[in-house]
TrEMBL record, chains A, B:
Full protein name: Crossover junction endodeoxyribonuclease RuvC
Main localization, broad class: cytoplasm
Record's catalysed reaction(s): Endonucleolytic cleavage at a junction such as a reciprocal single-stranded crossover between two homologous DNA duplexes (Holliday junction)
One term under GO cellular component: cytoplasm
Organism: Streptomyces spinoverrucosus
Keywords (A to Z) from UniProt: Cytoplasm, DNA damage, DNA recombination, DNA repair, DNA-binding, Endonuclease, Hydrolase, Magnesium, Metal-binding, Nuclease
Length: 181, 181
């Protein structure tokens, strides 16, 4: 199973591709960050994120895309940008019929460290260990994207297969139902 | 000046096209709602909104797109959906090099009714009057989209021309600056 993890953000959007199945060693296929200039207009930043995500989808052909679920308990301005960046990532995946899964930060931390309250350093350490890397991926957004992908792979495989089938089936149904009046 | 106003939402995304210049009677060229099924997956809903917005851009070729600026003082879940729908609208416009302007609900209400605290009915009444329609557009999202377009037309035309030039110029610059590392 090949998963692209996306840690959404307007300035830095972490991306990481992991391949594997539960109970076997995992393999990192790529990791990086899609960046957009802080001083650019919002619409143009979203276009830059779209291009970046499309490049990662083209290159790695993931079967699933896992995106961090956005909450609004944090800084209002940051959350809006994060929600907008995540929308672009979800749009890019869904357009290709790739199922999108959302995982909360706590779920991701619990998956890779055993506790939902782990800090950035702990997540980085475990991602390094689980993917047998020489050093923790930098910046933290990149490590978080890999953790998202790992979290997704370790969910019940049957559930993933079901979601994949449903996504492919409903892509067409939604297209015909969503109409312009 | 031809403006597409977008009142973003996941379930109902209001769209309205108005043509005109400040100080002259305005003309409505089209109004409607892009709907997506509530029970569909989020990624697929965003794809449906993208298709809907693209259709409106194809049909009406607006020079500007005006989108309601999203705030998070309201219901958290609604705001996330609104932010995500607005991201898709901004993305569609920016991809074509069409400048995107954001206006707050208060700015829009003040532009068409004279007060930033006007209610939905008052906005509907003034939109009907200003566009010389037989009845207020329904649903309210459609009327709000027209109000957004009117608000944008009534901003300083010089500022709009400047923004248009900057958007076209920076579209390429942003594409080359936003890189995947």
């Amino acid at each position: 199973m090949r998963v692209l993890g996306v840690d959404p953000g307007l300035t830095r959007c972490g991306v990481g591709v992991v391949e594997g199945v539960p109970g076997r060693p995992l393999t990192m296929l790529g990791v990086g960050v899609v960046r957009t200039p802080v001083d650019a207009e919002l619409g143009l930043r979203l276009v830059a994120i779209e291009r970046g995500i499309e490049q990662w989808l083209d290159e790695h052909r993931p079967e699933f895309v896992a995106v961090e679920r956005v909450f609004s308990q944090h800084n209002v301005r940051t959350v809006m940008g994060t929600a907008q960046a995540s929308a672009v990532a979800m749009l890019c995946a869904a357009r290709r019929g790739i199922p999108v899964a959302l995982h909360t930060p706590s779920e991701v931390k619990a998956a890779v460290t055993g506790t939902g309250r782990a800090d950035k350093a702990q997540v980085g350490t475990m991602v390094t260990r689980l993917l047998r890397l020489d050093a923790p991926p930098k910046p933290a957004d990149a490590a978080d994207a890999l953790a998202l992908a790992i979290c997704h792979i370790w969910r019940a495989p049957a559930q993933n297969r079901l979601q994949q089938a449903v996504a492919l089936h409903t892509a067409k149904a939604t297209a015909s139902k969503g109409r312009t009046a």
